[in-house]
Amino acid sequence: MSVRFYLSIICLFQIIVFHSIAQEPESKFKTGQYTVETTSREILGPELAASFESVIKQNETIKWTIFVPENYDPAFPPGMIVHMTQRNLAKMPIGWASVLKDKNMIWISLNKVGTLKRNKEMMLSVLATPYIQERYKINNNRIYLVASADSCYAASAAMQVYPDIFKGAIYSTCEALNWKKDIPDTIDKMKKNRYVFVSSKEKDIGQIVRRSVRKYEDAGITKIKYLKLQELVYGRNFSRRRLNQTIELLDDLN
To answer: What is the C-alpha separation between 73 and 77, in angstroms, rounded?
Structure first.
């Protein structure tokens, strides 16, 4: 990792911390499901956005779908789910709204952007955090990634590179990015975070997910739960009940 990139990560984290305490006046809080378009330049400013130019162009349009429960109250800051899926949802999965309301969570997902390179998908997941934090008061200890299929590579990379930002991840029907001998420099911070691994009824998926669990355990990560769902199929989104269950597992690991 280059010195410049490392410094950019530090600056990005500082930006996110700043946004976490600088929200819009309460009268401007928007709730429900809606879409937004922005750029990395608008989120980070020109100087910091320029340091990530090789991954995402400063003026490239970023489109997200966002859901904020109608009972949002800055006095009781919600958590946040960054949903990463190959399907690039234009709408939130059916039944999820009631779970997010009950669990006090804001949801954000890329909106129909197509297939992305892994480093770009990771960067966009990171940018989602300051974008939301600039507009809503967030519980920084409940910023979670929910990823499925090939998006797990980008999600697990984000958990490794930005452990100060993301505090938990749900890896569904996929293999998280792992390592052989080169344990990440951020491993001590990663150990403080929480991870739920979910496998489906497919035998090969079960083997892949369990292998990822073992890699994390071998590295000394203990805040882990493994869940096998017979009704789940590779790449599919959770049902309402299963989303509720996995969020509870993450929260309980704290």
So the answer is: 7
From the list 131, 97, 89, 135, the residue with the least C-alpha distance to 113 is 89
Decide: residue 3, CB within 10 A, 0-12 exposed, 13-18 middle, 19+ buried: exposed
234 — pLDDT class (breaks 50, 70, 90)? confident
Coil, helix or strand at residue 43: helix
Which of helix, strand or coil describes residue 31?
Answer: coil
Tokens 């750029």 correspond to 39
- Spatial distance between the Cα atoms of 117 and 154, rounded to a whole number of angstroms: 9
Which domains occur in the chain, in start order? 3-252 (3.40.50.1820)
Q: Could you identify the residue written with the tokens 């997010």?
A: 100
Task: Examine the pLDDT at 16 and tell me if it is beyond 60.
Answer: no
Instruction: For residue 220, give the DSSP letter.
Output: T
Q: Are 130 and 43 in contact (CB under 8 A)?
A: yes
Q: How far apart are CA 61 and CA 113, in angstroms?
A: 10
Helix, strand, or coil here: 225? Answer: strand
pLDDT in tens, 31-56: 999 999 999 999 999 999 999 999 99
Identify the DSSP state of 163: T
**Strand 62-68 to strand 79-84: parallel, antiparallel, or no bridges (unpaired)?**
unpaired
- Chain centroid to Cα 226, Å, comes to 18
What contacts 71, CB < 8 A, 6 or more positions away? 101
Q: Write down the pTM of the prediction.
A: 0.88
Percent over 70 (pLDDT), the chain: 87
35 has which bridge partners?
A: 65
In this structure, what token pair is assigned to residue 231?
């009704």
